[in-house]
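Thread: uridine-5'-diphosphate complex, take 2
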Amino acid sequence: MKSITIIVPAHNEEKNIPLTYNELQKVFKSCEGRYVFDILFVNDGSNDKTFEEIEKLANADQNVKYLDFSRNFGKEIATTAALNNCRSDACIMMDADLQHPAELIPEFIKKWEQGAEVVVGVRKENKNVGVAKTVGSAVFYKIINKISEIEIKPNTTDFRLMDKIVVDEFNKFTESNRMTRALIDWLGFKRDYIYFNANERINGDASYSIWKLFKLAINSFVSLSLLPLKVAGLMGLVITFISGVAGFYILFGKYFLHWKFASTFSDSENLAILILFLVGIILMSI
Ligand code: UDP
Ligand code: MG
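Output below.
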């Protein structure tokens, strides 16, 4: 029988942990005899009773396992840690807040059995999202698809199944600032999609603030695209060129041609040009 691990990152989800567990049990029942399931919770530095809830389940059910973080590292690191510790034939990642409907898991498995190596959940509508997040994510996908070498489909989520071969490749990444799903997309492999309506969050608040999402977006731009580096290099080139020409003009004009105008530059102005020149070289070297 093939083994499947359900990965659930959790940050302050004390009320949702048992609910998620119950939802998953229903799914496991419906697939009974065909697959061996286990659940891998990651307690991402929660300050409520999330860990106690997970531990309670793990003590009662040997198919419940967990990782417990020393502080809050963020969902990307939580899912990465779980994937690093997953030895099953396939992993399915889902949120702990019941926004990813567990009843779709059999469909993910079906697509996997049909040959897909990554099955990605795509959100049809998210009832819980504000204007800022909607606009922000539209802008994010526009930019990332313009500047990066991979195509990232909008509205794809972390609700996804990955075959063992994909997990093994994923585990070779050493990035510490990461956007898990973008890295998975970068890997390629045969993929298929499942469209779902995201439920409303049952308990607690979404802990991904706009600020956290903004940081995640910047990390993705920087790690998935060479454009920011190229921009720095180009700026260096322009700065070096302009300050180089100016410096040359002043030095040469002052000492060799004895131009009046070249001697009107003060010491601090000359120093500023020298510093600009060196900054340009540093930017180009980067
Ligand atoms: N999460 C996490 N660490 C964090 C923030 C969130 O592990 O620092 C988990 C959270 O418990 C949930 C999932 O990641 O299972 C999605 O988080 P959330 O619901 O806050 O985000 P959204 O639904 O807005 O994507
Ligand atoms: Mg959520």
